[in-house]
Amino acid sequence: MPLNTPLIVPSVLPADFAHLGDEVAGLCAAGVDRIQWDVMDGVFVPNLSFGPDVIASAREHSSVGFEAHLMVVNPDELLWRYAEAGCELLIVHAEACTHLHRTLARIRDLGVRSGVALNPHTPASTVAHVLAETDLVLAMTVNPGFGGQSYIRAVEPKIAELRRMIDDSGLPIELEVDGGITDATIAGAAVAGADVFISGSWMYAHAAGKTAAVDLLRTTAAAASTETAAVS
Ligand code: DX5
Predict the structure, then answer these.
(1) Tens of pLDDT along 45-75?
(2) Residues in the ligand 1 pocket, defined by CB under 6 Å
(3) Under 8 Å CB-to-CB from 75, ≥6 apart: which residues?
(4) Considering only Cβ atoms within 10 Å of each terminal Cβ, which end of the chain, N or C, has fewer?
(5) 10 Å Cβ neighbour count for 18?
(6) Do residues 175 and 155 make contact, with C-beta atoms less than 8 angstroms apart?
(7) How far is the CA of 107 from the centre of ligand 1 (A)?
(8) Helix/strand/coil percent split, the chain, to 5
(9) pTM of the predicted model, to two decimals?
(10) Torsion angle, CA of 161/163/164/169, rounded to 10 degrees?
């Protein structure tokens, strides 16, 4: 079953990089559950972003945990650096891991939680044999590399398949979605079975501010998953 209360997690990509500490503190004040750092290497995705030292510099400004979404081709080389920078959850892409089972085990050996991400085209079956090694599965709802893209609704059947796999496993695995999450798209992902929601550009652009944005996303997701539970 999905978490009782949906988790709302901002992506820092739209933030003012000249004031990252204040931005992180502002997100905590808005009531977010943790903060996602989109780590891009310019190879796995055609964009560059946060090195571990940047994340470490923002750590003391946050009262919530950090997750690193590693959009990199060589995650094994970098895991310890992001754990050391203060990330309590490290998410690697299945498409970048030749030895995914070993990489997920290595993350846990560092004393942090593990996660595996799937690009929109990657089937759910890719994680069928590593569910016991992961604490989270991330279904990308955009092709990774940039914020502000449109939500890919065609991913929802895969989210539902992942939800069934996780429920059948009986393991406490979070099911996260990322990309194009707004007040108009979050319900579809929640009905499909997601329980953790990343939002970047929509949350930052929300006219009523971040606190109102977080509340609206959480209540919309909670209402949608409650409705689903009632009919199933
Ligand atoms: C894209 C990143 C997402 C992105 C989300 O590669 O993984 O986290 O920043 O931003 P929005 O909500 O604007 O799609």
Answers:
(1) 999 999 999 999 999 999 999 999 999 999 9
(2) 11, 13, 38, 69, 142, 144-149, 178-181, 198-202
(3) 90, 92, 93, 96, 97, 103
(4) C
(5) 7
(6) no
(7) 23
(8) 45, 20, 35
(9) 0.97
(10) 130
Q: How many CB atoms lie within 10 A of CB 182?
A: 18
Is 178 catalytic? The answer is yes
* Model confidence pLDDT, tens digit, residues 4-42: 789 999 999 999 999 999 999 999 999 999 999 999 999
- Residues 91 and 67: beta-carbon distance below 8 Å: yes
Q: How far is the C-alpha of 231 from the C-alpha of 212, rounded, in Å? A: 29
Residue to substitute in 40, 70, 71, 146 for testing ligand 1 pocket (most ligand atoms within 8 angstroms of CB): 146
Residue 57 tokens read as 């510099």
Q: Which residue reads 């891991």 in tokens?
A: 97
